[in-house]
Design goal:
The protein is of the alpha/beta class and 316 residues long. It has two domains: 1-37; 42-307, Metallo-dependent phosphatases (Purple Acid Phosphatase, chain A, domain 2), CATH 3.60.21.10. It is 30% helix and 25% strand.
């Protein structure tokens, strides 16, 4: 009887030790993954096939390579962000599009890091930039941030960046007429709780109407209003802002946004509605909640194929 009792106690002890070892190993794995995801990024590639806005004619195809980056928040990947620069160069882009929040408004040191990156990007190809909520708040709240935005944006423009501050530019992308628009939302649309809903008229008031005969690319920092962007007339919308939902849940998506919204619909990835394509970057950096889990930072690369036939497949 005593032998059975001792054997039972030994088994229990072994189970406890095994459980403790498993918990410790699991915890270490989680910590290592958290550290890895805060120090690395991946390249997320999409292939989008659309009708050529020049019309239907002979069977031909024009491919334009875009690189989209968003939500850097002063993050550095290697000295001078050289790892990020190398990744951008590897994609051989024709145009680089920036979706805002390269800086963090609460940290003035991020301005220099953003400018350091921008000055390298413009050496690769033309760069078009729209503001995020951090830049927008810096611009509006001068009593808090002084002339910080003015100095930062002057340096951005001096570097040769096309700044789209609620503005549009028509671009000939390998002969294809494309309009790129950068949208600044009413600041109340970014409120953490009880945010103002965006209306189509708000978009029209800010940037007018899409230009007829052009493929319309919209840089709109938050993806929350993706249906509004589609109804306005965007063919492709590029967004960020939600940082992928911070924690990725397999089969579900992002868990919670930096704005404390659970299970965001547009956390990251590609979203289609009719002929509209929305691409949401999970971002390159973090702020306030410096956490990523099962949600790696990413650089977005888009192969945009213009076909001269009306019915085209639209693979990711």
């Amino acid at each position: 009887m005593k032998k059975l009792k001792r054997k039972s106690l030994k088994i229990r002890k072994n189970i406890k030790e095994a459980a403790l070892a498993a918990i410790t190993a699991g915890s270490l794995s989680v910590v290592m993954e958290l550290r890895r995801e805060l120090s690395e990024f991946l390249i997320r590639r999409y292939r989008i096939c659309v009708p050529d806005p020049r019309g239907i004619g002979q069977d031909s195809q024009t491919t334009v390579k875009l690189v989209f980056l968003s939500d850097l928040h002063g993050k550095r990947y290697g000295t001078g962000n050289q790892e990020l620069i190398r990744a951008v160069k590897h994609e051989k882009p024709d145009y680089i599009l920036v979706g805002g929040d390269l800086v963090t408004r609460s940290n003035p040191k991020t301005d220099a890091i953003a400018l350091e990156l921008i000055r390298q990007l413009v050496k690769i190809c033309p760069v078009y930039l729209a503001n995020g909520n951090h830049e927008q708040k810096m611009r509006i709240c001068t009593e808090e941030y002084g002339d910080r935005y003015e100095k930062y944006m002057a340096a951005v423009q001096e570097a040769g960046v096309h700044v789209l501050e609620s503005a549009s530019e028509e671009v000939s992308m390998k002969g294809v007429p494309v309009q790129i628009s950068g949208l600044e939302l009413p600041v109340k649309c970014y409120a953490r709780f009880f945010a103002q809903k965006l209306q189509i008229q708000d978009v029209r008031d800010a940037i007018g109407e899409p230009k007829e005969g052009c493929y319309q690319i919209l840089l709109a920092h938050t993806p929350v209003f993706m249906p509004v962007y589609q109804k306005w007339g965007a063919d492709m919308t590029l967004s960020g802002h939600l940082h992928g939902g911070i924690i990725g849940l397999p089969g579900i998506g992002g868990l919670i946004t930096p704005q404390a919204v659970l299970f965001p619909k547009y956390a990251g990835g590609i979203y289609r509605e009719g002929k509209h394509v929305g691409i949401v970057s999970r971002g390159l950096g973090t702020h306030t909640v410096n956490l990523r889990f099962c949600n790696p930072a990413e650089l977005v690369s888009v192969s945009l194929e213009f076909h001269s036939c009306e019915n085209v497949d639209n693979p990711v």
